Amino acid sequence: MAVSQEHYGDYHRLPDHAEDSPPEEEEQQLLVHVTEGLKDSWHHIKNLDNFFTKIYHFHQKNGFACMMLSDVFELVQFLFVVTFTTFLFCCVEYDVLFANRPVNHTQPGGGLAPDRGKVTLPDAILPTPQCAERIRASGWIIFLLVMAATFWLYRLGKVLCSLLGYWEIRAFYTKALKIPADELCNRSWQEVQARLISLQREQQMCVHKRELTELDIHHRILRFKNYLVAMVNKSLLPVRFRLPLLGEVVFLTQGLKYNLELLFFWGPGSLFQSKWSLQPQYKRAGSRLQLAQRLGRGMLLLGLANLLLCPFILVWQVLYAFFSYTEVLKREPGSLGARRWSLYGRLYLRHFNELDHELHARLSRGYKPASKYMNSFTSPLLAVLAKNVGFFAGSILAVLIALTVYDEDVLTVQHILTTLTLLGLVVTVARSFIPDEHMVWCPEQLLQCVLAHIHYIPDHWPGNAHKSETREEMAQLFQYKAVFILEELLSPIVTPFLLIFALRARALDIIDFFRNFSVEVVGVGDICSFAQLDIRNHGNPQWLSQGRTEASVYQQAENGKTELSLVHFAITNPRWQPPPESSLFIGHLKEKVQQDAAHAPPAQRLLAQAPFSTSLLSDEGPSTMPDALLASVLAPQAERHFPSRPGSTASAAASILASLSCSQLLRRSYPPPPPPPGENSVYRSDSTLLGDSVAPPESRQAPLSRSSVVLSEFASAEMSLHAIYMHELHQQQQQQPPHPPAPGPAPFQSSAQAQAASTRPSRAYSQDLPLGGWEEEEAAAMEASQQEREKH
Hints:
InterPro entries: Autophagy-rel_prot_9 (IPR007241)
Strand content: under 5%
Helix content: 55-70%
Largest sheet: 3 strands, mixed
Transmembrane segments: 137-154, 298-323, 381-403, 415-434, 482-503
Strand order of the largest sheet: 1-8-9
Membrane topology: Multi-pass membrane protein
Pfam family, one: ATG9
Distance between the termini: 63 Å
Keywords: Autophagy, Lipid transport, Membrane, Transmembrane, Transmembrane helix, Transport
Structural class: mainly alpha
């Protein structure tokens, strides 16, 4: 965010037209706990953010028993690390252990004499009184142990309170949601969410609304995460730096993220006065300079506190990393060369209102394509050096192994085991730089495969996938595990300086961001306005929103975040009714798909070629239906039997998406919530899409599985196709000559204007339906036609 807009639009409250909204004087009693009758009734929950978040975590962590064991072992693990480290420092005689000093053993005659034979472990361990005396003699060790004990007792109190709260959540699942503990693993989150929405009508968990929507629940669970996603999207957080020799680097660690959340959301003096309400002074533009100075002072104090605690945090980070990764490094030396999605990448790639398990599943699907893309870049010079270094190290290693096989006494030679370990490590590292001789270099296709799952890439990547600059930028999102460990170890040292210097310089921009991009939603509280998925206020004309958005450059989300997040939320929550402007956008997207599909090859032809190209997506087994859908679009142009032309990928994606409408593949038809016992499926599919062309022979003619796992894969494939299609259209629009600049953003509408706009007749809007169905028919007609088929 290069320019801070002082008064683009002040904090405002979204209109609510629900009949059950309470009057203004009741706002101060928005979430007051009321006990009514039975102990197991849940009326007017005091903190719905915490309540819904606990319900979500309880489901994702597989119930009370798993959560309790996880918390208990976390406490035991901390106690073990502290105790074992103290033992190693104070209770071990290292001169005896390393045989630098002879051990006095008792002789048969009763005397003591030095024994230069083998040293046993008890010989190197000091007696308990001597060990305790060493601990008491060191003031630093006593101080560190007192601090560790204080922190452990604090964590113990939090764990006990947390377990008491989750025991209540267990009762809520059993009594209110009618989901027994032994069936929790078989229930999808969509089903739990549907039961929550149904329960609101009966128990009025939220006093402000008679009806809860999927978006309300996501807003409460992801309130603060949506702010962080928006701040990364608008480049507000100072996490990019240009360093000598290293070039541009991104530094965002768990420690820095924790400090940002402490500073902005829930710490003392934070911008939020409660879990759901921004402090009133931050909603007004008049005192922005004073608030920026106040926030800057908070950053300074927090940075100094981090600097003071830096030695202790650094010691803990080093010890924890040593105990966690040393055994893994010995067993699998190449594990540190594996990659993982960076913390910055997770925020950059995250949709607004995307839950943790949805993000994890999406990035897990993209792990193999991303690894293939990164591994496709090789250095010929490093390959030559690696081959020769590996040869020399491997030769010496082979001789030493042969000697140990011939005579095991070779292992008693000093440092022989260390030499074997280091040589094995050198050979493993050298092999990682030697490319696969059977690899075919196709970076553009691999980058398209990556895009299909991560959904966001910078505009300059397409067409430049073969360049090292693109790979370096990709490495910022998909980093080596060794880099991740190094960053976490450096975090206690670097974080204080980032808080004191880099972040303080953005204090005024941060104040403006929270004022300009916060809205109050009745029954939810203050949320990030981007999370409303409002195309009119945050859409980007370069992402199919032209003519439907009034957002200025400052208001627009970057990289099509609003549009792609809207499509993702509509697909994963097909019962959700979007706002009018968002519905118009979805309708326009459907029309565009149908138009492009009319000029594209038929889906049958594309799917027939899918088995030949699924190797880009999967390394194992026959093609599954979701993989086949993606592979039919991501196939290299040479494999297709139509001429390559600009937009051919978009046409192929449009053809597959349009065929979903014809075959009713992803039709969502929810049973009335809550579903009857034993009903697992959230989505229902009436038929398969051209199953004969992609299904394995033994599975042909078999109906599509109705399990939530399979159907979530189809939803993921549908979203991947939309991401490819929308990126292709965006690239085409960028290549067109620029249009005259659009007029500036209109002021925010009043409640009456918004209501009039929502009731204005529109032919396109009257035909729009939720995105997940693609021209779905009425449910009654579906049931009638199904009954007729059953009769015949």
